[in-house]
Amino acid sequence: MRYSFSYFIVLLTAVILTGCNAPVTVKEIHLGLHKNNDLKIRIDVTTTRKADVYAEYWADSSAGKKYTSVVSKNADAHSFVLCNITPNTAYSYDIVTVADGKKTISKIYTFKSHELPLFLQDQFNAKTADKAALPPVFKDGLMLINKRYAPGVAYLVDYKGRIRWYHMIDRLGFKVINFTKDNTLLSILGRNDEPTSYGSEILEIDLAGDTLLHLKKGDADFKQTIHHEILKNNKGQLVTLFVDQKIMDLTKVGGSKKDTVNGDGILVMDKTGKEIYRWSVFNVLDPLKDPHLLKTKKDWMHANSLNYDTDGNYLMSFYNNGQIWKINATTGKVIYKFGKGGDIALPAECNFTQAHAAHINQHGDLMFFDNGVEKHQSGVFAMKVNEQAKTAQIAMHFQLPKQIFNGRMGSAYLVNDTTTLVCCSKRHIIVLANTKGVLQWTMETSVPTYRAGFIRYAQLDPYLKPLAD
């Protein structure tokens, strides 16, 4: 028995050593759609032993320009999702294995991508203005666009109006969506019967379309309806706006003794839905001082965006009073109120009415989309705000053509120093404008997207890269 046991150990060791010295080969390959998405091809690979493995793929018409998948490390079962796919296109691919310092490339395999479903065709119509030269950076990225009613769709679209990536949800709409610093897509989901930018679920997915986080109203401390914004802070926590209801005696202004005023608040939760921080507009402002409260009580302030200043404090814009507030993220104290009736002195030319998508741009300026309700013409502002002196200077301002006046929703983000990507939601159009407001490029959309963000390909690598065209 001792001899037989010793022989078994030696034989097993020999087999293992032989296996370690043998080249890694591919045993099986399975290919299909990832989650029934026509622009995501999934490849499952098994190898004879553990190795680092990745896929190379290319369109047959692209003169051999190769794209590379993520790398599956030190495993014998591997899965890849290829996202740099165009519809109805013939592709070739190979599987690369790396083990013991040796790289092995499999034989070449082929597949053909599907045509996009009919409901995704002809969604976007892009045009470049005559004699306009689009900045190279605009061709080096994609626009993030969302369909707000069910079935909800998140799209990444290029400057030609081509859908390069999408993710669909059957029963809910993507009410708001943001691209995070972790290169993920974070969204508020809502039913069709919920207001425009309001929802009751939070979804985070990666670029492969896999779910990283999904919270529903009722989970842990997530009890409120949320709206208009969903972000991550530097701790990876979820930051959103919520509807804060307060029961008040409004008899002094002609209301009832137990009346309800709907205000807004900031809610910070961890990934399980546990509340970390809460701030309410009721903490700093008395609704009874609003002479129009009986008309506005159902949506008193209507907060419509939330972002961070460079010092980590909050920037929050309100539609109903047309102001942008800076709020101390620790104490909740309002640092300044920017806009009519605020405490920052405004230049005479800064006559904006209602603002959306307030944020700090790459130059450190407070930038926002001006709905321009009073003058019936929308535009874009970037302001240099001096908190200590309580003053502001215009760093950039242009008005859009009156034909695309956008009284509600909208966004404006710099693409480079001379062009701005502007979303006119109500007009179903996204435009690229120069610093004088002249349109360089337009894209008509089939969906009234809430915003249009711009994401560089460097942030989407290796899932998405520029096409060879």
TrEMBL record:
**InterPro entries per record:** Arylsulfate_ST (IPR053143), Arylsulfotransferase_bact (IPR010262), Quinoprotein_ADH-like_sf (IPR011047)
Q: Which residues cross the membrane?
A: none
Q: What is this protein called?
A: Arylsulfotransferase ASST
| Source species | Mucilaginibacter dorajii
